[in-house]
Amino acid sequence: MEAKFFRFLKIVGVGYKAKAESQGRLLYLKLGCSHEVELTVPPAVRVFCFKPNIICCAGIDEERVQQFAASVRSCKPPEVYEGKGIMYIDEVIKKKQGKKSK
């Protein structure tokens, strides 16, 4: 399969990791829960993990690549206070200021 469309995701957080197995058919995510999140990749999409915190979704159908990347991101969307979670590489999260203690 020759991939034409790519979507890169970045995982931010201590202990958050991703692992792709069986020729890009399964994606395992450790996101601070008591269990690993296991995602099955659709047939038109392949998943690669360059580092434990960088995920690449590639495929020949742009809509399916975008849809799978969005489903991965929805497992742990980035939070606005600490910036932890799964975000797109080109995404910028504006952090909010927490309450100031007196």
Write up what this structure looks like.
By secondary structure, this protein is mainly beta. It has one domain: Outer Surface Protein A, domain 3, CATH 3.90.930. 12% of the residues lie in helices and 38% in strands. It is built from 1 helix and 7 strands. It has one helix at 62-73; strands at residues 5-12, 17-21, 26-30, 37-40, 45-51, 54-59, 85-88. Strands 5-6-1-7 form a 4-stranded antiparallel β-sheet. β3 and β4 form a beta hairpin. The longest helix is centred in the middle third of the chain and has 12 residues, at 62-73. The model has no long low-confidence stretch (mean pLDDT 89).
What secondary-structure arrangement, pairings included, does this model have?
Elements: E1 5-12, E2 17-21, E3 26-30, E4 37-40, E5 45-51, E6 54-59, H1 62-73, E7 85-88
Antiparallel strand pairs: 1-6, 1-7, 2-3, 3-4, 5-6
Structure, briefly:
This is Large ribosomal subunit protein uL6 alpha-beta domain-containing protein. One of its GO terms (biological process) is translation. With 102 residues, the chain is mostly beta strands.
